[in-house]
Design goal:
Layout: E1 2-6, H1 13-26, E2 30-33, H2 44-58, E3 62-64, H3 68-74, H4 78-87, H5 89-101, H6 104-111, E4 116-121, E5 124-129, H7 146-153, E6 160-163, E7 170-173, E8 179-182, E9 197-203, E10 209-215, H8 220-228, H9 235-240
Bound molecules: fe (ii) ion.
């Protein structure tokens, strides 16, 4: 059983297209998506259109959950925009604009997604979360103390926890027997080279599994120009974060 796990696409179709090319070569049986489709990119509708295509193509073999910024888009109000602008100006202005330009059917879609899913494949129990099993916006970063990660995932009823949110791929094999893998980000990668990352997960018939992070090249300079071309206040800060 081969599964491609993607997360944090953040309205970056150029990065997503290159990742999909690599996923096609992998030829997975299933796709898991851990959320954050829309906020802070150059074309939220294009990314959502591609997600809908995957949903149609894979049917019941496509699983998706809601990310914290999907929830922001879905439940956006003036107070939220104001507070986000104060805390992180480029995100606040992007939130204000993205809600206006994103097709309502895609906003309704992310609004109704579950925050987590429990899946069992060949006896292996898998927990899909955006941040951590405790919270949609909790950070499972590289180089955390393993005790900290144990505490974050101790209430998960599964052996394998897949998460995103931090945009930094990493993994932990814990003494409790749990494995935690942060799959990284497709559209807003925070690795040194800012290149898209996704996860290839292979599970054998006994539930033994193997994971590989894939780092994919794309034209991040062009994507940066496209987000700056949107022209809203502080959008150049979002562009700088692509390169
Ligand atoms: Fe994200």
């Amino acid at each position: 059983m081969k599964i491609a796990v993607i997360s944090d696409l953040h309205a970056n179709p150029a990065a997503f297209e290159k990742v999909l090319e690599d996923i096609n070569i992998f030829n997975p049986d299933k796709i898991f998506c851990l959320g954050d489709l829309i906020l802070a990119g150059y074309d939220p509708n294009k990314v959502c259109e591609k997600i809908f295509e995957l949903k149609d193509k894979f049917g019941e073999n496509f699983e998706i959950i809601q990310g914290n910024t999907d929830k922001m888009i879905a439940f956006c109000n003036d107070e939220m925009v104001k507070k986000t602008k104060e805390a992180f100006p480029c995100m606040g202005f992007s939130l204000e604009q993205d809600v206006k330009i994103t097709d309502k059917k895609y906003i309704d879609f992310v609004k109704n997604l579950p925050e987590e899913k429990l899946i069992e494949i060949n006896g292996l129990k898998i927990h899909l979360v955006h941040g951590s099993p405790r919270a949609q916006n909790e950070n499972i970063y590289p180089e955390l103390m393993v005790e900290t990660v144990e505490e974050m995932v101790k209430n998960s009823p599964t052996e394998l926890i897949l998460c995103g949110h931090t945009h930094k791929p990493c993994g932990y094999s814990l003494s409790s027997g749990k494995t935690v893998v942060n799959v990284g980000s497709v559209g807003r990668s925070m690795t040194n080279d800012k290149m898209p990352v996704y996860l290839q997960l292979t599970i054998d018939k006994n539930g033994q599994f193997f994971v590989e992070h894939r780092i994919i090249s794309y034209d991040n300079l062009e994507a940066s120009k496209k987000i700056i071309a949107r022209g809203f206040e502080h959008c150049e800060d979002l562009g700088k974060m692509y390169v």
